[in-house]
Amino acid sequence: MNKLSIEQFLELAAKHPVLDVRSPGEYQQAHIPGAHSFPLFTDEERKVVGTAYKQQNRETAVKIGLDYFGVKMRSMVEQAETIARKDKTLLVHCWRGGMRSAGVAWLMDLYGFKVYTLAGGYKAYRQWVLQQFDRQWDLRILGGYTGSGKTEALQKLRPHIDLESIAVHRGSAFGDVEGKTQPRQEMFENLLATELVKQEGNTIWLEDESQRIGLVNIPQPFWKQMRNAKVYFVDIPFEQRLEHIVKGYGKQQKPKLVNSIMRIQKRLGGLDTKNAVNYLLEDDIKGCFSILLKYYDKQYSKALQERTAQQIQTIPCPTTDAVQVVTTLTEHLNN
Q1: Is the link from the previous residue into 159 a cis peptide, with omega within 30 of 0?
Q2: Domain end marker among 108, 129, 150
Q3: Domain of 181, in residue numbers
Q4: Residues 224 and 189 in one domain
Q5: Does 24 have pLDDT greater than 90?
Q6: Catalytic residue of the set 40, 61, 94, 234
Q7: 317 a catalytic residue
Q8: 54-104 confidence digits (pLDDT tens)
Q9: What does the mean pLDDT of the chain come to?
Q10: Same domain, 106 and 172
Q11: Is 189 buried (19+), middle (13-18) or exposed (0-12) by CB count in 10 A?
Q12: pLDDT tens digits for range 161-194
């Protein structure tokens, strides 16, 4: 068994399975992307062991832990066999690199696996994650009013990071992704750090976003870098954008759209809220989204004013077609 630094651990994690031996609740909160949940204790068992440690002593807690561990040994080995690859190498971690990972690593090593553990555990990984947002990244921001098809265009730019995909939310009050749950803040950060490191040394394209995407926030140090980066603002006519957004959001169920409108009613204003809802109920989707698009245009214009004129390059484009947007953008960059 070998203890690895976080950098060494992540390098091997690209090739070998990672076993997260924390409890299911800890794993669900957030984990190293790609890691397998491989709990030594259930949530309740962890609570019992922890209480014994605090209220009695370490020895009592260890004995209780061994009682739980003993009956699981065979099943854990068999489960590991289904996860491990041909070379039988496993990476194991717990919260702080303590007894849980040491115990599971001992068992796997005894059986014949080649085992590595993470020095400092998941806690060390989280420190590494936060450090990534303090690093300086070479960023380009794809800007444009709502309905410009920025998300579709972003997919054709290389390399890029899709923040909305990581957040499982398309931004704005209308951005919930049907049937999917957003990651918790900690997991969002883990996923973002992973994507950033994949693009190390490259100029990275990002879509211009608010700091808050649904229920998660872009980490402040990285958000500052985004705000200081150059914005390539694709300026597309209102009617083209309206048509694009009606295609994208007009298929949603009316009750969901009404709920989304009501979320912004204070900022939208009483009259516009009333008219937008009435248009929607009368099946005039275009009339409804025309009101909403004007509102979001004002909001985006305010956000643009917080940047300097030197930061923004405006690129007129006649269509929301992603191929045409990227072609126009590329021609502009090459001139």
Answers
A1: yes
A2: 129
A3: 136-334
A4: yes
A5: yes
A6: 94
A7: no
A8: 999 999 999 999 999 999 999 999 999 999 999 999 999 999 999 999 999
A9: 93
A10: no
A11: buried
A12: 999 999 998 876 666 656 688 999 999 999 999 9
